[in-house]
Fold this sequence. Notes:
This protein is of the alpha/beta class. The chain has one domain. It is 33% helix and 21% strand. The chain has a 4-stranded parallel β-sheet, with helices on both faces. Strands 3-4 form a two-stranded antiparallel sheet. Strands 6-7 form a two-stranded antiparallel sheet. A hairpin with a 2-residue loop joins β6 and β7. The chain is globular and about 40 Å long. It starts with a strand and ends in a 6-residue tail after the last helix. The site of iron/sulfur cluster has 12 residues, from α2.
Amino acid sequence: MILVSACLAGIKCCYNGENALSSHIESLVRKKSAIPVCPEQIGGLSTPREPAEIVGGDGRDVLEGRARVLTRSGEDVTGQYIRGAEEVLKIAKMVGAKKVILKRNSPACGFNEIYHEGRLVNGNGVCSALLIKHEIEVEASGFQNSDVTNFLKAHASRGY
Ligand code: SF4
């Protein structure tokens, strides 16, 4: 069993109330090979919600108290991001998941690259960082070609 970002499975949990459907990921869930999770929602954030970014580092820095997650208007949502990551870790342990496939570039799910002030920088999202710390393999998922245009339109103002 693996965990996947819920938005990739077609769940409308993105900050703007949309999804980021990947038919490959959806099919894994339909075959009961994967469980969809959304750390931002599980952490207590509503949908739709104001977009947020990590300020002062990446997800590991957030977990170690050196960086924060702020919404575009400056609200500090660090606590919700940490709580969401911890709950996803709990689910992973509960089902024995050794691997997760998470959506690229998100401040929660991003792996290797996250957005900062409209551009990609090296680093992991908060949830990815916590899972990696607990030796769960993280893989980043993009989109199939047919999904790219819709994704770029929907996320033009946000960046992820
Ligand atoms: S990228 Fe992660 S946190 Fe963002 S909507 Fe998708 S599952 Fe939720």
